[in-house]
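As a warm-up, study this chain.
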Amino acid sequence: MAKSPRHQEWVEVKYGSRTVKSFVVYPEVKNKATAVVVIHEIFGMSDWVQALTDELAEAGYLAIAPDLLSGMGPNGGGTDELAASNGVGQAIGKLPPDQITADLNAVADYVSKLPSANGKVAVGGFCWGGSQSFRFATNRPTLKAAFVFYGSAPATAPPDSKVDKAALEKIKAPVYGFYAGNDARIGATVPPTTDAMKELKKSYDIVTYEGAGHGFMRAGDAPEPGADASQQVRDSYPANKKARDAAWVRWKEILRKL
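Now compare it with the structure written out below.
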């Protein structure tokens, strides 16, 4: 990351009483670029998210990753402050859905109006962020595409927790799913989501990467595990890396066509 030739900066996206700290990376391209909003995992803002944002810029896209935990720390900080007390996961679970939507809308508005942006905005999220990417597609009809990496579709309230067709009905953008073969928890949500999207005549194009586990974009991005790693980590690494590489190829191909 430190060696990246691309311009990177932290910005404060403000609306109402909220300030959303966001990481922006600019592509080195001649023409104005499509913007991609990156939604972090349940771990909050991380070095990995920043590296992935830079990789999107390397591919030619104006990439921005908001810290959705901005202002949620005990002293008004975000992920960094919460991580110091191991409070990230708990804070993620307490984020108001309407606040998440408002934050993402503010970030999308901000990046779409930058002088180097062409006005097109897509969204991509991972794990918890993948589910938020799907949900954001139900709330922002102008999105050009939503990329869901091992996340689930919006669901109705427990105990039913079924696919929320009323929410999916609002989707205008194509949704692209990237799923892991060894991820039964999320995998179980894909068939009913597929049925609902088909019934509603919505575009939902999925690929399942066999042998990969949940979080393969991060796991496959890591260095090859050494002999001191667990047997499970050593065994799963090749499939995760293969899935990660294939998913990147697919993602970039779709982005080029937006």
